[in-house]
């Protein structure tokens, strides 16, 4: 479905599972889990079908960020973390969601960190999954070199310093299979994804270069689970540890997954979803 979140702006939204379930003499309300996808420029499809594993404990809201996927095309002036973070609140207001659990994966984690800064009282809980707080170019380069050898060094540095369609194509060909620690078994996943490359290149060229999200994390008021794969090349473990350190200690939980890469559920689905389930139910 398409939801209008402000005049003339529609987001594509998909909802899985009931919000109210029979429980004896009552109708019990399940928490709402809102998934913020990675990219930028990609869509929500990377969460499917894996996150159906949580539909018994939460109503799941998938959506495409403003300008992405099946949501309305929007001008580049709106391709900002502030706008995307505020859209979480706008979407909740449109759907009547109170105190959501917000999971931000990768770039979605950038959005979730800015959401914490700008709207600290809004979420019930936040999950920061396989994400970073800054560009961290040297860490990215070394992470991919560890996974793929010296042959990928220039391709990694090329995209993140000179983002163009050509540097992206070279990077993606060399590095896309290095994101996870184990080979992925769904050969059609990439074909299902809707990519708007202009958004990705615009963000890397602009806001990402000087992005600094740590200061805003001190404003967190709700429980925040930081999830990190120890073999993640693009959002390295050290970034996750620094995010955890920047959060108020009373709020922060940290889950490290050895031998996992970017999006730990891709490498260890049973362990990853068990940890997310516990956090949702706490």
TrEMBL record:
Tell me where on the tree of life, at the top rank, the source sits: Bacteria
Named from the GO MF annotations, one term is: hydrolase activity
Alphabetized Gene3D superfamilies for the sequence: alpha/beta hydrolase (3.40.50.1820)
Residues covered by the AB hydrolase-1 domain = 31-135
SUPFAM superfamilies noted in UniProt: alpha/beta-Hydrolases
Q: Name one Pfam family in it.
A: Abhydrolase_1
- UniProt KW keywords: Hydrolase
Family classification: Belongs to the peptidase S33 family.
The protein's name is Alpha/beta hydrolase
